[in-house]
Design a protein that fits this description.
159 residues, alpha+beta, 8 strands, 28% strand
């Protein structure tokens, strides 16, 4: 009877150990990814959304991400560009190990020149009137005879 109790207790204790032990501890952490960054024109500042960055053309080492990330490219006198990067996980089998790659690889950005700033236009000021035109405008109009209408008579030539 003691043997039966000992076997049951040993089995229960081993069963508890197996549930707390995970096979994940035997897996090694995935190696960091080498991501190649390029731009046209070269020399742009490229920064990944994961942190690392460099001046193109270059390579950065990023921790193997679980989700897609992006790379932002910036260069003076050019419009900034952002390129999304997908993460592709290839599960291993008995003969090959698991791998992680990126799409696109290399990450490439075609930077467009920034529009030149528009020239600042001076506000339009009206020209000052010439002295002769100012005198003519200031002269009083000829006086009309008393009782005359300021409007022409439409029947004036018909009588």
């Amino acid at each position: 009877m003691r043997r039966v109790i000992a076997i049951v207790l040993a089995g229960a204790s081993l069963g508890g150990c197996s549930s707390s032990m995970s096979w994940d501890m035997f897996k090694s952490a995935p190696p960091p990814l080498q991501v190649r960054l390029e731009s046209n024109p070269p020399g742009a500042d490229a920064t990944t959304s994961l942190g690392p960055g460099c001046k193109t053309p270059c390579s950065v080492s990023v921790p193997a991400p679980d989700l897609p990330f992006s790379v932002a490219f910036a260069l003076p006198k050019y419009q900034p560009a952002t390129v999304p990067v997908n993460v592709i996980k290839n599960p291993g089998d008995f003969t090959t190990s698991a791998s992680v790659t990126t799409d696109p690889n290399p990450v490439f950005a075609e930077l467009q020149p920034a529009d030149p700033p528009k020239p600042v236009r001076k506000p339009h000021r009206p020209k000052k009137p010439k002295p002769a035109a100012a005198a003519a405008a200031a002269a009083p109009a000829e006086a009309a005879p008393a009782g005359a209408s300021p409007f022409p008579d439409p029947n004036a030539g018909k009588r």
